[in-house]
Amino acid sequence: MNKSNSLQRQTNVRIRLKPDKRRRLIVEAAFTAVASDGFEGLRTRDIAMSVGINSATLHHYFPTKEDLVTGIAELLEARLRTEKAPLPPQGAFKPLDPFGRQFEDLIFYHLQIPEILAVYREFVARAPRDPAIYALVSKLNTGWKQSIAAALSEARAQDILRADVDIDAAAGLVLCTAWGLVAQIFVSPKEVQAAAAQLRLLIRPLSSVAEQTEL
To answer: Which residues lie closer than 8 Å to 119 by C-beta, 6 or more apart?
Structure first.
């Protein structure tokens, strides 16, 4: 097959892509660009070239750069919802996690899919200046806080959590600690684990009269 035929074949393949598939490819390329170079590196012309289309085709799917950013936000939300740290093998002992596996997921992202954390940091930095992004970050945080609160409530029901802990305030503390660590780009998985361990110590039930007296 000569070069011209090969190029024609590639063009035909692109034409046969379904709109939702092509849209997904564009968003994934934009997601990668933001993870690598931040919003400053999000150039629609470069994104179009990376997926083998021209700028006019990209603008057919995303008329403005803001529309493309919204697409990235939707992909970030979907990945945070579906890509989680692996659960222990079936049948293995699984201690109740009062924090809803927030710290396990963070370590998983840090080690396996750091691009998720990179894009999340970009959105948090942009949120104060962009109402749409602010709404997305707020939605994510609300969902995480609710899941943590549910895990804390279950822990208290099983006497793993101190009875005097304010569930809502504690959930906020866990959320701020976990995702505050994300903002510290030099933090290590060991430091994330240490922070989680200290929080568990703070909220554990009092196990002796001495501990009660100290408080």
So the answer is: 31, 34, 35, 72, 76
pLDDT tens, residue by residue, 79-131: 998 999 998 887 666 667 888 788 889 889 988 999 999 999 999 999 999 88
* Tens-place pLDDT, residues 7-16: 344 444 445 6
Ranges for all domains in the chain classified under CATH 1.10.357.10: 83-214
Q: How far apart are the C-alpha atoms of 51 and 25, rounded to whole Å?
A: 7
Measured CA distances, 42 to 30, 48, 62, 92 (Å): 7, 11, 13, 44
The answer to whether 54 touches 11, Cβ cutoff 8 Å, is no
Average pLDDT over residues 33-62: 94
Topology of 83-214 in CATH? Tetracycline Repressor; domain 2 (1.10.357)
**Entry pTM:** 0.78
CB of 117 within 8 A of CB of 109?
Answer: yes
Which residues fall within 8 angstroms of residue 87, CB to CB, at 6 or more apart?
94
Tell which wins on pLDDT, 215 or 111: 111
Give just the sign of the alpha carbon dihedral 105, 107, 111, 113: positive
Domain with CATH 1.10.10.60 in the chain: 3-68
Neighbouring C-beta atoms of residue 102, cutoff 10 Å: 23
The CATH number of 3-68 is 1.10.10.60
